[in-house]
Design brief:
Blueprint: E1 8-11, H1 17-28, E2 32-37, H2 42-53, E3 58-62, H3 68-82, E4 87-90, H4 105-133, E5 136-141, H5 144-148, H6 154-174, E6 179-186, H7 192-195, H8 199-207, H9 217-228, E7 239-242
Parallel strand pairs: 1-2, 1-4, 2-3, 4-5, 5-6, 6-7
Helix pairs in contact: 1-9, 3-4, 4-6
Bound molecules: nicotinamide-adenine-dinucleotide.
Length: 248
């Protein structure tokens, strides 16, 4: 029996990368999967197909996580389709890297809106469902950069640090109703997001990692399974680093 048997999970920004892997691995553990992405493209279609082939209920939704109204509509649509939401993974995120000297206001605003406001949008909308059922696990995707900062990523670091404060506050607000809220802080994980980085930057990063390698989306998905499952029933308000020891 899977660790998430009979549960329904909603994962944002799941067509690609870490979110996609979480959706697939949650399904392997028996969860029904609702997922969203900003565009419903071939990646989203193939994810629906792959999960369908595993014999689980799945539906992808085109939804902008940074929009408050779209977030409310998404939660309503998922509940209508699946009946409930047991786990929410706020995974959607973007980078618009630049040194502060060259960073535009638009790049600051967009990163804060997609990476941080999205978490307010979806968590606020899902809480009434979880409060009613007196059960829920909310997982917010932070980053080692949110803990330690990174030159050239002040907007991204601010968004990822901000969501850690949000996570701990929500853990305190909702803990008495058996709703847990945790953050994952991945290090350097090979996805389209990190494929954009120059090779010399990647090599420099890997030298700082005690395990001496980059991570795979699966490394993050394994921790998400744990946090969504009853194995983590006494774990809330925590930031779990998945970074090969880059941050200690
Ligand atoms: P990715 O770029 O491969 O995938 C992100 C997905 O989010 C894409 O499918 C994209 O279309 C979707 N998305 C973007 N904006 C959206 C929006 N407004 N609404 C809905 N969906 C949207 O990125 P990834 O590497 O898989 O990263 C996933 C999460 O993990 C992000 O929050 C990222 O910041 C975080 N993270 C990644 C790494 C890494 O090394 N890859 C490290 C730390 C944290």
């Amino acid at each position: 029996m899977g660790l998430l048997e009979g549960k329904t999970a909603l994962i944002t920004g799941a067509s690609r990368g870490i979110g996609r892997e979480i959706a697939l691995k949650f399904a392997d553990q028996g969860a029904n999967i609702a997922f969203s992405d900003i565009v419903f493209d071939d990646h989203a279609k193939s994810l629906e197909q792959e999960i369908n082939d595993k014999g689980l209920k799945v539906k992808g939704f085109e939804s902008d996580a940074s929009s408050f109204a779209a977030g409310e509509a998404l939660i309503n649509d998922v509940v209508e389709e699946f009946g409930t939401i047991d786990a929410l993974v706020n995974n959607a995120g973007i980078t618009r890297d630049n040194f502060l000297m060259r960073m535009t206001e638009a790049d600051w605003d967009l990163v804060i809106k997609v990476n941080l406001k999205s978490i307010f949008n979806l968590t606020k909308a899902v809480q009434r469902i979880m409060l009613k059922q007196r059960f829920g696990s909310i997982i917010n995707m932070s980053s080692v950069v949110g803990v330690g900062g990174n030159a050239g990523q002040s907007n991204y670091a601010a968004s990822k640090a901000g969501l850690i404060g949000f996570t701990k506050s929500i853990a305190q607000e909702l803990g008495s109703r058996n709703i847990r809220c945790n953050a994952i802080a991945p290090g350097f994980i090979e996805t389209e997001m990190t494929a954009k980085l120059p090779e010399d930057v990647k090599e420099k990063w890997i030298k700082t990692i005690p395990l001496q390698r980059s991570g795979a989306p699966n490394d993050v998905a394994n921790i998400a399974i744990f946090l969504a499952s009853d194995l983590a029933g006494y774990v809330t308000g925590q930031v779990v680093s998945v970074c090969g020891g880059m941050n200690m």
